[in-house]
Known about the structure:
- The chain is mostly helical.
- The chain contains ten helices and three strands, in the order βββαααααααααα.
- The protein folds into three domains: 3-99, Winged helix-like DNA-binding domain superfamily/Winged helix DNA-binding domain (Arc Repressor Mutant, subunit A), CATH 1.10.10; 105-147; 152-200.
- Helix 2 packs across helix 4 and helix 6 runs antiparallel to helix 7 (138-147).
- The termini are far apart.
Amino acid sequence: MLITAIEPRRKAMSALYIDGExxxxxxxxxxxxxxxxxxxEIDDDDLREIIALSNExxxxxxxxxxxxxxxxxxxELTDKIKRTCDAESAQKAVERMEEHGLVDDESYAxxxxxxLINFKHMAPRGAAYMLVQKGIDRELxxxxxxxxxxDTYENICTVIERKYKNINDExxxxxxxxxxxxxxxxxxxIKTVLDEYREDD
Length: 201
């Protein structure tokens, strides 16, 4: 097989043509580093290797770009990279980020849980559920959320006072209860606060 053309494309990619036919877009830098030049004869093994190397470079660059914006769990990062690369390349890229200390599920989970509990006023149970959704191991999620000091009563009061003006109105109360339960609070915790609002009224 003969490379007959390499044409630049968007996002640091180049179109590879073999025997006059377009084959695929590959990472330009990978083509250059591996001397994939017009006029070079290649075989199927060469083509498979360059595709794998191109995918790995794209996956690594995507990983670096994503974590430059914010922290990610390993699962979350892998899932996002898989949208543009194959699963194996995505996995390798994330493992490399982890080796360099750029991805750490435990520290990510702790920071995210503290934000959910202290700033979004979620219950530890609700925060643990959110962590699991992000790909954090359930046992680790429970361990971290249970270690964060939380004043359940104060958190529920804060949510009610910020979001619900007339809490003793039945419709408003039902909406508040449903919202607080989605945040992970148990009915008995919510009822304790609501009973005090009723007494104050």
